[in-house]
Amino acid sequence: MVEHRPYLTILSHIILIAGVAIIALPIWITFVAATHDAVRMTQAPIPLWPGDQFWPNLNRTLFGVVQPGSEGAAVWRMLLNSLAMALMIAFGKIAISLLSAFAIVYFRFPFRMGFFWMIFITLMLPVEVRILPTFEVVANLGMLNSYWGLTVPLIASATATFMFRQVFLTIPDEMLESARIDGAGPLRFFWDILIPLSRTNIAALFVILFIYGWNQYLWPLLITTDTSMTTIVMSIKQMLEAAEQTLEWNIIMMTALLAMVPPVFVVIAMQKLFVQGLTETDK
Fold first, then answer.
1. Mean pLDDT, each 10-residue run in order, the chain (283 residues)
2. Domain end residue (candidates: 63, 87, 112)
3. Minimal CA–CA distance to 135: which of 211, 224, 209?
C-alpha cells in the first residue's frame, strides 16, 4: 500500500533532485571546462560557469591537425572510427544472435541443446581471458589496423542469443502452423513474423550493444598501431597520459564531451523502444 502524504512527496523529490545533481555535476564541469581557454583552466579556483570559448575549442578539437597526446589524429576521425566500430558490433551481434536463436528454437537437429549450452558457456570466457589467442588469430588473418579486426572478435554474443531464444519461445506454435498452411518457408517466417514481433527487443539490445562497442578500450588499444584507426576512448586516455606535454584541459574536456554525444543520441532516440523491449513479456 502506498501512502500519499505531503512530506513523503517532498522528501522523495529532494532525494531525486539530489541524485540528479550528483550524477550531472561531472557532466556540468566537463561542459564548463570545454568553454574556457587553456590558461583559465590552469588558474584556481576552477570556473563553475561557462565561458566564451566553446566554438573555438570545438573547431580546434574536431579539425585540429595535432591534439595533445593524440599523435596527430584528428578527433573527427576518432569519432568516425568509434561510430563504425559500435555500429558493426551492434548489427553483427544482433544478426548472428537472431539466426542462432532461430536455429535453436525452430529446427530439430542432433545435439541441438548441446550447441545451445556450448554457446551459453562462452559467457564464462570474456575477451580479457582469450585475448592473446584471439590477437594471434586476428594477426594471422591480416586484420590488424582494420575495422574487421576491431569488430569481428567481439561480434558473437551468447547473451543476445539467449535473450532472442527466450523471446522466440513465447511466440505461439499456432503462428508457425499458420505460416506453414499459407505456404511460408522458414526464411519467410523468420523475416515476416519473427523479426517484426522482436522489434522492441532488437531495439533494446541495439542500445546496449552500441554503448558496449562505443566504450571498448582494451581490444582497440591492442590491435591498432596506426593512428588513423584510433578510437575516441583511446584518445582521451592518451591525452591524459601525455605527461611530457602541458595538459590542455579545455581540449580534453571538449573531446570527452564529444565522446558522450553519440551514445546519448542513441539512448534518447530509441528510449521508447528501449523501455518496451526490456519490460514487455507477452507477444
1. 73 92 90 84 80 86 62 79 93 92 88 85 76 88 88 85 88 86 87 88 91 90 85 82 69 88 91 76 52
2. 63
3. 224
